[in-house]
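Subject: for your reference before the review

Hello V.,

The reviewers asked for a structural picture of the protein, and I figured it would be easier to keep everything in one thread rather than splitting it across files. Below is the amino acid sequence we used in the manuscript, unchanged from the supplementary table.
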Amino acid sequence: MTNRLWVLRHGESTANVQGLIVSVPGPRALTEVGLTARGRGQARAAGREGLAQGLGPRTVVVSSDFARALETAEQFAAELGAAPPRADRRLRERSFGWHDEGPASAYAQIWQVDRERGTHDGGVEQVAAVATRVTAALQEADTLAREAPVVLVAHGDVLQIALAVGAGRDPHDHREVPHLGNAELRRIGAGRGAAGGTDGP
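And here is what came back from the structure prediction:
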């Protein structure tokens, strides 16, 4: 892949603070669960970091249409002086099925099944399904990045899987890739950046 392709995890969301999983498309994910004040500040700081890393007004920002990601993308793009973000449903959070609106502690159980190459039930989206849609988004973004830098703004699990795919690893091993903190910006194929944040999508 070109070295002008980046990923950015959303800033701190109200669901992060509440310790809840919000992953199923609907009013909660699409409009209600946005960023906290801290999350908005993190998104703007990520934009300033992007400027320091050579991003700028020509950067193409593509985002999940979930509120917390799209709001991050808007703040980030504004700091860069770039065009408003494009929405891409393929970057939506992994669906956690029957765990939706439940405690974030369920992630550990889900990730263990991933590591064991197990099959999820209860409507939890399989790793292979996430990898298929995120790979398509990555390939399209890689083509765009030949003309200008591209930043994909999305969620924890989706981006962990994207980073694994970008590194040529089995996507089931996505938690072996150093996790992205809230509003952490990382170039595909690079190591962990300096920013930290709340674990979980």
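For the response letter, the relevant points are probably these. The longest strand covers residues 5-9. Strands lie at 5-9, 60-63, 86-87, 150-154, 185-187.

Happy to draft the paragraph if you're swamped.

O.
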